[in-house]
Amino acid sequence: MRKLRVLPVAVLAILFVVPQIDAQEVFRFRYRAGEQYRILSQVDQTVTVDGIFSHRADMLNRISITVEEVDGTRGRFFVRYQHSAESTGLYATHQFDREYESRFWRDERGIYEIEPHYFVPVVRDVPVFPNRALSPGDSWTHRGSEVHDLREGYGIPDAFHFPINVNYIFLGEREWGGEMWPAFSVQYRISHVPGRRYRAALYPIRISGFSNQVMYWDPDFGRPKAYEEEYQIILSLSNGQTVQFEGTATAESIESTPLDRERMRDQIAREIEESGIRDTRVREDDLGVTITLDNIQFPPDSAVLVTSEQEKLRRLAVILSRIPDRDLLISGHTALAGTEAGRQLLSEQRAAAVGDFLLQLGVRARDRMMFQGFGATRPVAPNDTEAGRALNRRVEITILEN
Q: Looking at residue 347, what DSSP letter applies?
């Protein structure tokens, strides 16, 4: 079964809204250097092949955004996209699957300046605003583009681009989360025939579909508060097969304050010592602050937490609950024993067991955690002694910067 990595098309609609003028709105992008925030998007997708149900996918997309520089009315962005695997229901916590990064400029109307090799953002030049004030009911159109990652399964090595003609309507104020927000409808149809053939045995010869969205804007922060989307993408493949991806997506923008990593590291280390949690270390790293549970105890070749580890996690959960505004990434590691595939699976299962236990304790909501496994690929000690193997058998919980 081939799969398309479908990312929500509205995850980077970054705009600022100026105050209302005579019952009209003038929309322009504005940017603040150093600003950080993230978008959490949940996708519920159904996949069919030649009209026959294949599977249902439950996915989480986490996008962290930093405005690195402002040049006049343009902003330069650094964006990190973290995407979960398709949930099978085996684990309660989302499993980390893939990460992308990109840098680009965007002007005051919303038009991108971005190198074509980047796989994200998926939708570009959406929204783009007209050079006039808008009243509820006003409509406009602008040409945008979609970009997809078709490396996996389709053998297309480069970012796959195609154009879209987008229709907008300013809806006035609409309700989201019990409050009223300025809102837009964003709609387009997809109909694209690639202008080239590929050497791969299987590739799309036609792409069709649609996206219907409503975007909600936060006038205080001047950027999207949330969005709702219905979408469909149909791939007609070179072997005559038709694969359809259809679903819904919702997302919300969350403000991120700068993380004082040194202070948080010292605070957590002190609380761990006061709580009597053994075999646990804390450090700063590129992603934030990481808590390492050394020599974490499971029965041999098992991912069932023993009683002593459950008690350790209960104490740690109290500490993590005191910093609820940061998302968590849980990583599993094994010693060098057994097969590579077996080590990889075991590291994933053990990280998932820790994540699911923290989820049961209410430490974070489901959309605020992911887990991943590294097998024995990241040892911190030699594997030729029991002491070294004990250090390599670990689970790490990273409190993410943004």
A: H
Amino acid residing at 94: H
Residue type, 328: L
> What secondary structure letter does DSSP report for 259?
P
DSSP labels, 83-135: EEPPP-SS-SSEEEEEEEEEEEEE-TTS-EE--TT----SEES-S---SS-B-
Domain boundaries, the chain: 16-255, 261-400
- Segment 194-204, tens digit of pLDDT: 877 777 678 89
Tokens 């297309």 identify what position?
156
pLDDT digits (tens, 9 = 90+) for 331-355: 999 988 889 999 999 999 999 999 9
Which pLDDT belongs to residue 195?
A: 78
Could you tell me the pTM of the whole model?
0.88
The CATH superfamily holding the domain 261-400 is OmpA-like domain (3.30.1330.60)
Read off the tokens for 269: 């280390």
What CATH number has the domain spanning 16-255? 2.30.230
Strand partners, 254: 38
Query: How much of the chain is helix, strand and coil, in % rounded to 5?
Result: 15, 45, 40
Model confidence over 110-142: pLDDT tens digits? Answer: 999 999 999 999 999 999 999 999 999 999 999
Q: Report phi then psi at 363, rounded to 5.
A: -65, -40
